[in-house]
Amino acid sequence: MKRSYIFSGIVFACSVLFTMAAPVSAAASTVLKLGWTTTDSPNDPYAIGAHLFKEEVERLTNNEVTVQFYPNRQLGDERQMLEGLRFGTVDLALITNSVIAQVEPAFQVFDLPFLFSNEEQAHRVLDSDVGKSISEKLASKGVTSLGFTEGGFRQMLNNSKPVYVPADVAGVKYRVMQNPMFIDMFTALKGAAVPMAWGETFTAVQQGTIDGLEGAVAVFYASKFQEVTKYLSITNHNYSAVSLLMSSRALNRLSDEQQAKVREAGRKMVEEQRRKSAALAGDTLRLMKEAGLQINEIDDVQPFRDAMQPIYEKTRKAVGADVMDQTLAIIQE
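Above: the chain's sequence. Below: its structure in token form.
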């Protein structure tokens, strides 16, 4: 019996020593779910931003905060994800500016048709006090902006005819986002605007329910629209900003230090994502041409801008004269 007690004591002592010597396991990381509607492709501007943000967050927090991907509408369409952000059921999402404008009307100013002549103008406005003040309005609704990534200029893609002048849009059925400004734009050009969720668009074009769509070339290519369309017109009718948004509830679950690093990761991601997207733009256009699309540029943008004047006046009333005037002043610098 005595030998049994001695043996048990030795086993207990050894187990204590082993426990003390063993490394303490790291605390479980906080996992953030990041969703977007397009593919997880190296040529997709949404996916580029998602991967860069994940890398930066995990590096800066030493994996205390990690990011999981949910592309291809796994967390819903953009409007659904935006509502999820507001209620805290979605942590992070990459959302097109036009969809955000449905929740916070001030974002409409960034979507004005034929507003920007180049990306540099757009970046100046988005990164200015105008962009910051508009983002603060969204924060009051439970959603925090971590930065505006590059969606690129939006173009017209269809199976009917190339677009050179406004009359070429007349009568053609284009899928547009469920956004009043895009509906008004194509209506002003006498086209048939068909509001439709992104997930339904490829099949609708393929089956001829609609003639075409509008959007960024990189998204067209990543989603394989070159397989079901004929004419790509470089209209540059809208600049597409894509915001990396975070639920304020999810952000507030993090420590102050982690929150600061998440915001820093967003800033770094935006800078690199814009650079990568710009580098890919020419390559993607070349690939679309090699796929057999007929590509053209519009010769004179002024007739298109003239047709948009009623939309500018309507937007001025919606966002406020001060926001419109500040935006136009930055563009003219």
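Residues 1-26 have pLDDT under 50 and may be disordered.
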